[in-house]
Amino acid sequence: MFISLSRLPADGLPFNHQYAEGELDTSEHEFEIVSLPEVTGRVDRAGMDMRVRGTVKSALITTCDRCLADVQVPVDAPFDLIYVPEDPGANHVGETELHDRDLDLVVYENEQINVDDLVLEQLELSLPTRVLCREECRGLCSQCGADLNFEQCQCQKPIDPRWQALADLKNSSEDET
Ligand SMILES: [Zn+2]
Ligand SMILES: [Zn+2]
User: Fold this and answer.
1) For ligand 2, a single-atom ion, which residues have Cβ within 5 Å?
2) Per the count of CB atoms within 10 A, which of 16, 49, 55, 124 is most buried?
3) Among all ligands shown, which has an atom nearest to the Cα of 131?
């Protein structure tokens, strides 16, 4: 979905779009969409810059960092972005006023806002940096791949070198006393 800026009303343009199945290409992202996104927002002009703000609602499926099980992530992501023209020589009338506010800058091309890109970006940003199916997830055995949440494998647990260093340190300090 694109919003054309060439005939943007002077008092801004509200928009709302409910995505349909297959409308967004998520092949380059590490999530799957389980609840089709809805985006609501408005575009306001400030000289050549456009302020685009609103909310993306959806739900995603991604994988647990430890055991790779599916984890559902609800999305209710507010955004507030400034779109600047592609041409760096363009005259930014609203620049000083808007750019001072430390908002995210995005470039627009061909007098239009690419809402699909905006939504995909917001979905990506709403994924937590650490995804766990549950806080106490035990993950997969690094040797045999067994899911330790469900089974106890027979592998010897290798000692993490960091813990080994700590244990050595503790032993040597105990020797000194
Ligand atoms: Zn897990
Ligand atoms: Zn194992």
Assistant:
1) 141, 143-144, 146, 153, 155
2) 49
3) 1
